[in-house]
Design brief:
CATH superfamily of the largest domain: NAD(P)-binding Rossmann-like Domain
Number of strands: 8
Radius of gyration: 20 Å
Strand order of the largest sheet: 3-2-1-4-5-6-7-8
Distance between the termini: 46 Å
Order of helices and strands: EHEHEHEHEHEHHEEHHH
Helix content: 40-55%
CATH topology of the largest domain: Rossmann fold
Length: 291
């Protein structure tokens, strides 16, 4: 999808960090933006910045170039209402970016609370809300009968275990596998991809132990993440793709095609044959053989 004036995007977690950077970068392309966030002060500020960035592009537009909607993404009704407001304002939805995130400050096995404001909230914000946002966005896009792109913001914590924050790692791993499983939506013109950056110098990223950050080569710039997101939006071949961004290796698609072959159960051709109960290309994983 070519990023051009007239498209519209809804960004959750758009009031700060990566979400804010994406809202502003989209504005510079002339995209109408809905900033969805729980922080009203920061969200309105970002919406104002977006309006200034594309003021000349949309000087004669009948609608504002950006709106802010206060929303707790874990509230399904509120999230659905945010999408309806976006569509009512801009007439459709071309891009959805699920970027809202939450980091739990305590280890789950030391947490004696019911988890409402700690590990359970991390699961609801980082995983459940991403699934819900993707679900709503795909339904809107399919009803429009035109192409759409969804970008889910994952993390390097979803690619390998993070022992210092197991719940965050688990939720991001869920986002990665959920997104990769949606590759077949491409047949409906909808591409869903996931972006997995290492530590970015944002308020959330700066909570990470600096020793670990330095061991991985230091912080990424938000511009690196924006570049990766734009690649996933614009490259029509990317559906169910996972883009890993790091200081050490730059942008790498994960897993590589060679590694993927090690665990694929069947190819697309053999899948068609499966209806005839023939499975010629099943590859038994090594750990099954050991068992």
């Amino acid at each position: 999808m070519e990023l051009k004036p007239g498209l519209s995007a809804l960004v959750t977690g758009g009031a700060s960090g990566i979400g804010k950077a994406l809202c502003i970068a989209l504005a510079r392309k002339g995209v109408f933006v809905t900033v969805v966030d729980f922080s009203e002060e920061n969200g309105r500020e970002v919406a104002s910045i977006v309006q200034k960035e594309n003021k000349l592009i949309h000087a004669y537009a009948r609608v504002p170039s950006a709106i802010f909607i206060k929303c707790d993404v874990t509230n399904g009704d509120a999230l659905a209402a945010a999408f309806r407001k976006h569509v009512d304002t801009f007439g459709g939805l071309d891009i959805c970016i699920n970027c809202a995130g939450f980091v739990n400050k305590s280890l789950v096995y030391d947490d004696k609370s019911d988890g409402t404001s700690t590990w359970r909230r991390a699961v609801n914000v980082n995983l459940v809300a991403v699934i819900d946002g993707t679900r709503i966005a795909t339904q809107v896009m399919r009803s429009q009968k035109k192409p759409g792109v969804i970008i889910n913001i994952g993390s390097v914590a979803g690619l390998y275990p993070m022992s210092y924050e197991p719940v965050y790692s688990g939720t991001k791993g869920g986002v990665v596998m959920f997104t990769r499983s949606l590759a077949p939506l491409k047949r409906h013109g909808i591409r869903v991809n996931v972006l997995c950056p290492e530590f970015v110098q944002t308020n959330m990223g700066e909570k990470v132990n600096r020793v670990l950050v330095d061991a991985l080569g230091g912080y990424l710039k938000v511009e690196d993440v924006v570049k990766g997101a734009f690649e996933l939006i614009e490259d029509e071949s990317k559906a169910g793709a996972c883009l890993w961004i790091s200081k050490r290796k730059g942008m790498v698609y994960w897993p590589t095609s060679e590694k993927e072959k090690n665990y694929l159960v069947y190819s697309s051709k053999s899948q068609r044959k499966s209806v005839e109960n023939r499975f010629p290309s099943i590859q038994t994983p090594e750990y099954f053989q050991k068992m």
